[in-house]
Structure formats: structure tokens, C-alpha cells
Amino acid sequence: VACSNWKRIMIVLSESLQQEGVPQRDPLAIPRDLVHNSSMHFTFNKFWKRYGKFAKHLMKVKLKKYTKFLFVRDPFVRLISAYRNKFEMRNEDFYRRFAQVMLRRYANQPTPPASVDKAFTLGVHPSFSHFIQYLLDPQTEKDMPFNEHWRQVYRLCHPCQIQYDFVGHLETVEEDAEHLLRLLRVDNVVEFPTSQRNLTASSWETNWFSTVPVEARRELYKLYEPDFRLFGYDRPESILNE
Questions:
Q1: Which of the ends of the chain has fewer CB neighbours closer than 10 A, N or C?
Q2: pTM for the model
Q3: A Pfam family for this UniProt protein (predicted)?
């Protein structure tokens, strides 16, 4: 989580974005379309191409000697946030790849609108409950692995294989990020951007899950239990024991 802002930090530190010959120093001044643009980052593919047969050895060295960090978030709140961001906003890609599937399977819509614009005009979109059904449906992962926005973090970032030096939490991101940048000795170069966005709050969980049957909530907890346990999040008793 928080990968957009961490990518902004990486762009500043790598000095890969120049403005009139001077490296960009303000993370928030980096245009959103450049943040996730692979041209701005030393990606896995570039690494592999540059080092060829030495790449595997160099990866082992980097995994041993570099500072490895990870930011996590309450697993259920992360799911609410993913739903809000990908299905309550107009996103053609996510509509075609996922929303149409949910509408066909769970919303009695055998022929959902062809585009996200048509769907929004008609007021058609999968509910949060449909999204949870999709996650719990065994057919989902038979078709393809979970998308990175809702794949369990233990499967996405492999904390049992990679010895992370630092695990931060989105709930305390500003102080955790400040501490990490200080550890890396770059706190005099860059500050983590303060987010002004409408972040999904953990206090909203009860309202969001009110439309999801209790049995489904308990199944969902089992699906994400390793993330709760690994990263120090309490079992959400009020949601699971209604």
C-alpha cells in the first residue's frame, strides 16, 4: 500500500525526473501519469536485461544487503478501499475485467452494459457484497490469480521468503515513513507527501460489511487471516460476531 507516494519518493531519490536540468525535489509535483510509468523506474525487466546471466546473483546480493521495506494496511479496510477505487469510479479496464464478471455471476445481469460509461449512466455496478462474493468464489482463482489490489499481502510480497527490514502501517504512515527515511539517511533530501485524499477509514467497516452475510464475513476473515496475524491487526470481532 501507499505505492504511489513511495514511487514518487523513488523518482526524487533517483533524480530521474529533471526540470530545466535540475532534479525534481518535490514528490507531489510529479504528475500522476509519470508515477507508475516504467520509464521512470529501474524495473525488474530492465534489471534482467542489463545484467543478463548475472541478474540472479545480483538479486541475492541486493536482497541481503539492501534495506527492504513494506507498508501494509488493515486487510478489510484495504478491500473497502479497493472496491471504492476500482468499482465506484469509472475505470474501463477494471469494469471489463472484473465488474462485468461480478454482474453476470451474482447480480442477475447476463448481458451487462458494454462499457463503464454506459454502466454508470444506467446506474449499474457490482455492489460491495458482490465483490466479496467474487473473492470467496472458488472459480475466481481458477480463472486467474487475485489482482494485486486485493491479493493477500503475504502472497503478494512474500514476507516469509524475504527478510524485510521494516514494516510500516498505512494507519501511521506519516510517522512510519519519517522514521524509515531517517533510517535510510535521506530525510534531509525528501519528505513523504502528506495525503489530502479521502482515505477509507477503519471506522467505516461496520457500515460497509452490513450488506455482507455474517457467514461470508467469517469466510473472508479466513481468506485474509494470515495478513491479520502477520502484520499485527486485531481480529475484527464486531464484524465477525454479529
A1: C
A2: 0.89
A3: Sulfotransfer_2
pLDDT over 90 (residue 2): no
Contacts of 156 (CB under 8 A, 6+ apart): 148
Q: Where are the alpha helices (DSSP H) in the chain?
A: 3-14, 32-35, 44-51, 55-65, 75-87, 92-94, 100-106, 116-122, 128-136, 138-143, 153-157, 173-183, 205-209, 214-230, 237-240
Question: Secondary structure of 2-20 in the HEC alphabet?
Answer: CHHHHHHHHHHHHCCCEEC
C-alpha dist (Å) from residue 70 to 80, 154, 164: 20, 11, 7
Amino acid at position 92, single letter: E
**What residue has cell string 472458488?**
138
